Amino acid sequence: MRNRIFATIDGNEAVASVAYRLNEVIAIYPITPASPMGEWSDSWSSEGRPNIWGTVPLVVEMQSEAGAAGTVHGALQTGSLATTFTASQGLLLMIPNMYKIAGELTSTVFHVAARTVATHALSIFCDHSDVMATRATGFALLCSASVQEAMDFALIAQASSLESRIPFLHFFDGFRTSHEISKVELLPDDDLHTMIDEDLVLAHRARALSPDRPVLRGTTQNPDIFFQSRERANPYYIDCPNITQRAMDKFAKLFGRAYRLFQYHGAPDAEHVIVLMGSGAEVVHETVDHLNNRGEKVGLVKVRLYRPFDTKRFIEALPSTTQAIAVLDRTKEPGSSGEPLYLDSVTAIHEGIIGGWGKIKIIPKIIGGRYGLSSKEFTPAMVKAIFDLLSIEKPKNHFTVGIHDDLTHTSITYDPKFSTEPDDVFRALFYGLGSDGTVGANKNSIKIIGKNTDYHIQGYFVYDSRKAGAVTISHLRFGTRPIRSAYLIDRANLLGCHQPIFLERYDMLKHILPGGTLLLNTPYGQEEIWEHLPLSVQKQIIEKKIKFYVIDAYKVARRSGLGGRINIVMQVCFFAISQILPKDRSIEEIRRFLYETYGKQGEEIVHMNLQAINNTLAHLFEVKIPDRADSPIEIPPPVPEEAPLFVREVLGKMIASQGDELPVSALPPDGTYPTGTTKWEKLNLALEIPVWEPEICIQCGKCIIVCPHAVIRIKTYDPKYLEGAPDKFKSSYARDEVWKGLKYTIQVAPEDCTECGICVDVCPARSKSETRIKALNMHPQPPLREEERKNWDFFLTIPETDRIHLHQASVRHQQVQQPLFEFSSACAGCGETPYIKLLSQLFGDRLIVANSTGCSSIYGGNLPTTPWTTNAEGRGPAWSNSLFEDNAEFGLGFRLSIDKQREFATHLLKKVSLVIGENLAHAILNAEQKDEAGIYEQRKRVEALKKWLQDVESQDARRLLSIADMLVKKSVWIIGGDGWAYDIGFGGLDHVLASGYNINILVLDTEVYSNTGGQMSKATPRAAVAKFASAGKPAPKKDLGLIAMTYGNVYVASVAMGAKDEHTIRAFLEAEAYEGPSLIIAYSHCIAHGINMTTAMRNQKAAVDSGQWLLYRFNPERAKQGENPLHLDSPAPKIPVQQYLYMENRFKMLLKTRPIEAKRLFKEAQQDVNSRWSLYEYLAARKSEIEKRNKSSG
Amino acid sequence: MDLSTKYLGMTLRTPLVPSASPLSEEIDNIKRMEDAGAAAVILHSLFEEQLRLERYELHHHLTHHINSFAEALTFFPEPTEFHVGPESYLYHIQKAKEAVSIPIIASLNGTSVGGWIDYSKRIERAGADALELNIYYIPADIEMTSEQVEQTYVEILKAVKSEVKIPVALKLSPFFNNIAYMAKRLDDAGANALVLFNRFYQPDIDLETLEVRPNIILSTPQALRLPLRWIAILYGRVKADLAATSGVHTARDVIKMLMVGANITMLCSVLLRHGIEHIRIIEQGVRNWMEEHEYESVQQMQGSMSQKNCEDPSAFERSQYMRGLLTYKPKA
User: Fold this and answer.
1) CA A251, CA A153: separation in Å to the nearest integer?
2) From the centroid of its chain, how far is CA B27?
3) Residue A41: closest CA among chain B residues belongs to which residue?
4) Most buried among A122, A618, B143, B325, by the most CB within 10 A?
5) For residue A443, which residues of chain B lie inside 8 Å, CB to CB?
């Protein structure tokens, strides 16, 4: 009897653990949801963990997935066992290499956490559109449906690929499988050895390119032989299914889990059969069992090996009684005659019956349907509806399930009340904030249960796409039977609400079973809580006879030294209430986990958590439920009544977590959404907000420029506008001479503030008698909310300050400009958004933005509401995101298009000038649009032109009317992070810089891949710890600015707002004014730096003071004037680099992990700074050639 | 000419010892100190409080923001091991011992009795020749009596002495009601040496930002007067060796300190200002002075100008201050 070892892990770890041990070279690029596989591998490699052959795999992070695929291809060609992990767009970038690898019959396995390919919108969630895009590459496609299968198939795929020589793409559902935590049987090294035939590894090596036995691969072939050569590989594809089945059989002998290429499950005499692959198959499996237990005759075919498609085995898998088949695809191919698996199945049945294979003699009804796009829920209720559909004589083909298609009527209806959830599976749901540690606690809980009981377990976590105030929902199941429920819990035995405000925001109690338990974290005790609950919550508690417990977890956490992290407290409550383990045992296990998790970080850390355990149970109380619900508290509508219809009826539903209910017709067909919608979604995240003290304020504007969320603003205005102001509305007289006699107000948006506190930190004005009081101070929000909301609303009614007379280069003046980027979902204290907001203030009314994928595309374009907005005239930035890698090219396209249209408009204007008046035409054509006034005048002229044109009956007039707006200057900005600019998009960025076109590029340089969780980029500085640089980055940061300067005609600036805000403004103005390519590299602090975000602007200053970050402007215009184009705006470094490095965990952490290397790298970092400073100092001091020539000739 | 002196039971080649400073954080600097003639090296201090705060800080940054966003569940790689204790300091002691042959004296600043004891033992095990307790403590509690403050010092010293065998020096601040009595109590409690005096960090105010700022000021030669007086007074009255620190900048300062009774003189600001190699210049200066004034050995002059041995013992007492003030005349 083999000794079976189990572990509670997620799909990514399960797959990586096998892939890592079976490979030698691993080349990756981070992409959600596959990133953790690469990160696990990197972590094991840096620990020196060997593969099954005793050598430590090399893990390398590349500049893109295309680069990773190329590297894998190269490693394979030279005889190593190599792999990669990816998803979605990343997989698409690998396709060219995949054709090559398959064409060369090279053994490898690519592991893919399947994810939606971006179309009308990006989605990080799951469907099979990425994998389906590769089905012509020649790779075998093997699909696993659960965490255990993902682990098993990682091995089976490797064994099969080595034997068949066909490369395998092993895929599993992103998030649903990749991130689901499950108890799985581990595959020991010995068994891996048994499965992997050593001779096949040697054969793979023998095929390698080697100068010792040279061959040539990658020839160019002509019409004479290419075709035949492609057919030459046929035998390998014919054998591949047999080989894979043999590997599965061998695996079954070792582990007892028997897999088939097409695995039938259900009644042997089933009449109705569903065919599908992926985690949805588990849901169908669960439903089939449930229905058959009720006497129905249904079954399913789980497709394991999708390519090469073994037609014979497919038809053999179907019972002879099969009368109707529904083939489900988790993808959509618009315009096709059916989705891929459906088409394959139709063909297979057709060929099978003609060929006389299998047991079916009469062609069954066969229909295709789509489900689960972008992780849309797929539940037993939907499965039941599909089986019901098959019973109909003429069932709907090409149907959809899980949505309401009221437009083309593809959807089928289902009864959401249908459930297969058995009573003996315990189900718990927890609503928490990302920052309170809820998910971490639940991951630990499910692991404790997995380890200490014989239960099957499942942990699945739903995260928010918002970065500030992110909400998490944890779904935990455990019980004696295997859990196949690959769908969210909506009938919970226990519901934990870790934030009381959620009760007003989400109708979460609808998910509790009658007689279930509610656990609420609240500051109110068991006697007071009832009156603080909304009416609908009270009603449900009474109707469902819910047991109700409360705890003031924040109080317990604070007293234990844990601050706002209530995870341990809530975890103890969960175990106490659920009684899944005896109380003492569960507490003991939590303790053990604490030691395992935090022990290495020091005794105090464990101690404060232990303190929390000890303090918890004394604060957990059951609430006595009154008979009557009488609360005056009603759940407010998600958006106010005055919001536009689309916001109320579509976005409002999404805000209220009811987006699943929106019918197809409600949504735009092409992904086009209105801007300026964040203002309708009031998140009320701040417990404290800044409060302005007009008497102390020096009106410098610094608090406004640094605000990441545009929640604090200035207006200067005629005193007459104060009429009708709310009583508490504050104002003072403007100090600036230009605004003499005007009133001045700094106002905070209380419900949009995220409490980052940066405005208070940078405020330089202090009370003369009590210096701790500044011109801005944080005060609790709840008591201020109502009055400040009125003040904010009133503030918005005051007209904006006239832009034309502002000194734009001065912060105090410039910051009165209206931001057209507001209330984004970026992290509290974000270092990127102040730059974007500044851009929107300066040029927003004529701005068009191409935004690379990354943080800025998420907080910039993440639904339900988006931050780019308009001014009173309805003008504002137009924004789009194409891809991660192509952003510079995308933006160049904007420029070319605008230039072309302006050129055509100019041509047409000349043609119609006689009709509209030569003076106007002349004025438009010769307008100088160098400043706000010039643009304002041109806009007026163009308005006049358009008015004329409306009355002119000619084709030219109509044409000109459609593009006349292009005669007003447009500002094209290309925005993205360092991952894009330095790595994946560098080739394009370089080309666009070299193009000479008038584009502006803003690189928000966080020096790390922030959005995907802190992976190293080429912008990462030496000595910084990042994923894939756990020993500190050994090489210096790439000097992107210097590279760009070498073109000579590119405006380049390096800025850090926290060091010199007016320098940043000047750089933005100069870049925009420069009639050629401009590049601004903006130091952006980030949560991934491990810093205090409230004081993050000080980090920016320290970076500059130490010389780690240089401030400069390279303006080719200066060269034209005979001056040195480079202006070094940094003073000479005045503090040691180490002083700056010590301010950030990304550097300091290295002292705690590798102290010796840390010291060496810190020294080298100082050397980097010294030599870079010397170089820049030299370049900036250099006299330009013209200057020299002028001098010599003079 | 014999420059040797005894300190903490060790015979040192000269009385010139670099005191605890950032200079000793680098092994290369320690080698340079030895090459320049340093007789021993006091390592920079191991601060228990700093280690503790760093652990909290690390924990905060590793747990903050995690498990919040679907795309970024963590932001840092998860190492298998953290050196969150004194490991790197202990390793530094070992490396310093391997690198030089002069004695290495470790320096410790604890915050808890447990910490003082635990770290002292580990420092001893790491191979330090002696230990200097850097009791860096500002009693800001308005309810705390002077007696309680003094008792804290004595208890820490006793606790460490009971656990380690290497000699223990205690670096004192001058802020006691009766420093002589305090020195005696510590002497009775077993201090092998008293280091006079610790220079506390003195906060400063930035008048532009109206913020309190750390502002490390290097010592000036005038700072010498304080330890000079108290070493003079204590010499011959306590068993413990006496080390002079603060304001020792020149050979003449060294000689003055030796004359009032110091066993060694510690150098810090002067090395930060003029470089490690300046030790050599000071040593040469001492030699020149001794030769010129026909002294044969350091031991000969040690304590010669102490209160006990000098012509006018009252000169070291308070009245001297009054006279000094009376004779001070502002420049015209």
Assistant:
1) 10
2) 19
3) B77
4) A122
5) 67
Out of A13, A39, A61, A65, which one is annotated catalytic? A65
- Is A641 assigned a catalytic role? no
φ, ψ at A985 (rounded to 5°): -105, 10
Q: Provide the CATH number for the domain formed by A425-619 in this structure.
A: 3.40.920.10
State the pLDDT at residue A1193: 59
CATH 3.40.50.920 fits domain A260-400? yes
d(C-alpha A327, C-alpha A342), whole Å: 5
Within this chain, domains A6-209+226-254 and A425-619 share the same CATH topology: no
Instruction: State the Rg of chain B over Cα.
Output: 22
Local structure of A776: helix, strand or coil:
strand
Q: Spelled out in words, what is the top-level CATH class assigned to the domain A6-209+226-254? A: alpha beta
Q: What residue type is assigned to position B239 of the chain?
A: K
Average pLDDT for A669-676: 96
Alpha helices, DSSP H only, in A951-985?
Answer: 955-963, 978
Q: Answer positive or negative: Cα dihedral of A559, A565, A567, A568.
A: negative
Percent of chain A topping pLDDT 90: 90
Q: Which of A382-386, A493-497, A1087-1091, A1181-1185 has the lowest mean pLDDT?
A: A1181-1185
Contacts of A33 in chain B (CB under 8 A): 70-71
* Cα-based angle A158, A124, A486 (whole degrees, multiple of 5): 70
For residue B197, say if its preceding peptide bond is cis, omega within 30 degrees of 0: yes
* pTM of the predicted model as reported, rounded to 2 decimal places: 0.94
Minimum-distance CB partner of B69 among A434, A771, A1091? A434
DSSP β-bridge partners for residue A1000? A973, A1078
Looking at domain A1007-1188, its CATH class is alpha beta
Supply the range of the domain harboring residue B12: 5-327
Q: How far is CA A1066 from CA A243, A838, A1080, in A?
A: 66, 11, 11
Nearest Cα residue to A1140 out of A1115, A1170, A1171, A1109: A1109
Q: How confident is the model at residue A165 (pLDDT cuts 50, 70, 90)?
A: very high
pLDDT surpasses 90 at B211: no
| Exposure letters B246-264 (e unless 16+ CB within 10 A, then b) | bbbbbbebbbbbbbbbbbb
**Above pLDDT 90, what percent of chain B?**
64
Tokens representing B145 are: 């009596």
A779-813 per-position pLDDT tens digit:
999 999 999 999 999 999 999 998 888 999 999 99
> Count H helices, E strands: chain B?
12, 12
A354: helix, strand or coil: helix
List strands edge to edge, sheet with A1078-1083. Answer: A878-880, A847-851, A971-977, A1000-1005, A1078-1083, A1051-1055, A1112-1114, A1126-1128
Predicted confidence band at B329 (pLDDT cuts at 50, 70, 90)? low
- Tell me whether residue B332 is in a domain: no
Do A19 and A109 touch, CB atoms closer than 8 A? yes
Crossing angle of helices A887-916 and A986-995, rounded to 10°: 30
Q: How many domains does chain B have?
A: 1
Do A196 and A156 meet the contact criterion of CB atoms below 8 Å apart?
no
Closest CA to B302 of B213, B214, B235, B208: B235
pLDDT tens per residue, range A337-364:
999 999 999 999 999 999 999 999 899 9
The rounded distance, in Å, linking the Cα atoms of A836 and A830 is 11
Q: Mean pLDDT across chain A, nearest whole number?
A: 95
Q: Which residues of B touch A609 (CB under 8 A)?
A: none
Provide the token pair at A340. 């891929």
A65 is catalytic: yes
Give yes or no: A32 in active site.
Answer: yes
**Alpha helix (H) ranges present in A747-886?**
758-762, 782-797, 811-814, 833-843, 855-861
Q: What are the tens digits of pLDDT across the range A1147-1166?
A: 999 999 999 899 999 999 99
